[in-house]
Amino acid sequence: xxxxxxxxxxxxxxxxxxxxxxxxxxxxxxxxxxxxxxxxxxxxxxxxxxxxxxxxxxxxxxxxxxxxxxxxxxxxxxxxxxxxxxxxxxxxxxxxxxxxxxxxxxxxxxxxxxxxxxxxxxxxxxxxxxxxxxxxxxxxxxxxxxxxxxxxxxxxxxxxxxxxxxxxxxxxxxxxxxxxxxxxxxxxxxxxxxxxxxxxxxxxxxxxxxxxxxxxxxxxxxxxxxxxxxxxxxxxxxxxxxxxxxxxxxxxxxxxxxxxxxxxxxxxxxxxxxxxxxxxxxxxxxxxxxxxxxxxxxxxxxxxxxxxxxxxxxxxxxxxxxxxxxxxxxxxxxxxxxxxxxxxxxxxxxxxxxxxxxxxxxxxxxxxxxxxxxxxxxxxxxxxxxxxxxxxxxxxxxxxxxxxxxxxxxxxxxxxxxxxxxxxxxxxxxxxxxxxxxxxxxxxxxxxxxxxxxxxxxxxxxxxxxxxxxxxxxxxxxxxxxxxxxxxxxxxxxxxxxxxxxxxxxxx
Length: 508
Prior knowledge:
Elements: H1 2-12, E1 25-31, H2 39-49, E2 51-57, E3 76-78, H3 83-91, E4 101-103, E5 107-113, H4 115-122, H5 132-141, E6 146-148, H6 155-169, H7 186-189, E7 192-194, H8 199-208, E8 214-218, H9 219-226, E9 236-238, E10 246-247, E11 250-253, H10 259-270, H11 272-282, H12 311-322, E12 328-334, H13 342-354, E13 370-376, E14 380-387, H14 391-401, H15 412-429, E15 435-441, H16 451-456, E16 464-469, H17 475-484, E17 489-491, H18 497-504
Parallel strand pairs: 1-2, 1-3, 6-7, 6-8, 12-13, 12-15, 15-16, 16-17
Antiparallel strand pairs: 3-11, 4-11, 5-8, 5-9, 5-10, 13-14
């Protein structure tokens, strides 16, 4: 009899469809703020199923407790992505069973760019396609300024940052802890001009500014902004060729007692008619192939990038990005006689590449970066400080590296000792300043103090040395000195000198 009553109820009252006991259901939902655009869809849900969703719109990046069954204050969660929660859930104690999750729609993280800036950055690209590395290079030079939601507090901002960082790692796999280089994104970060705590607030601020070239965010947000009439000209959407991260908007069941209503809800949301309705309304992509794409959504969006599977990776990425003002790097460069010819040419080409050449990308010198260069042979042959504020500073840096004053001897450890004296002075003048040393040599030290003497000498423990072995330099000694000071060695003989500098440049 109870089943018959339920059936009759659902048949007679289309606008008040029922659960198995014939009752309407209200579910409290912790939801990503951008889902505010689902209002009319939720009205239809209530009318067609009897299920009312009470949406609590708030950021859910730091929601490990809020989403764990048994501790949650909500019945469901509807997020742009649950991958961050899953990372936290994995390391939580007394967490119970992992909550059921169902994907509902898709939107990739892309770049909405002014047409003028897009044309400028595409100029000279063989295929006309831009990469995250291209954007990082332009940001580092000061020629690309963008808006992005705050990564530490918003899912859209953190998703964007993970996409960029994954592309920067260049492994084609999920970010590992060792892939998150300390300064890998500093050049990119210098272009981050505008931020906000939600995607909607970011879009509002973006429309009010004329000094920002692009907005990084969900495809759906950018397309909606294009259609709002609030922009002087629609943004051109760029799908970086080195990959993108996608949000899949899962609904999580936090209260197992609401399983029946949950199943009914996701069944309704996944139906082709509702999938199309959500796409038409929000410009998020359907999860089912039964629904044709809206003409505004390109069929091909390129490669998808993976999310990290270790919460420590996300923690380190956020810490590094929050970074603060640029530190200082001391380059201690071997100008002994053995560096003449092809080797010094390779060194100069390396600095040209890091100064904005086609191979600079994520690793180029960036606006605001402070650099000190010491050229040495049997003694320090020259030293100069640079602050990178534009092309003239990069020209001056390359000119200093182009000097032809070489020396017949090699005093590796004496030169490194002098670099530490300068580093200590920098740190004393500006307490807390991040200072690191990059030492490059192509031979063994044959004058001045030895490596043992250097390692015994007092030095600032907060200054790390990263060594680059080139030519016949002693790998054991270079590795020992690097490890003892908190850094590591890279052998440029097994890679290129440019790649070696990229791997360790500016680490701290």
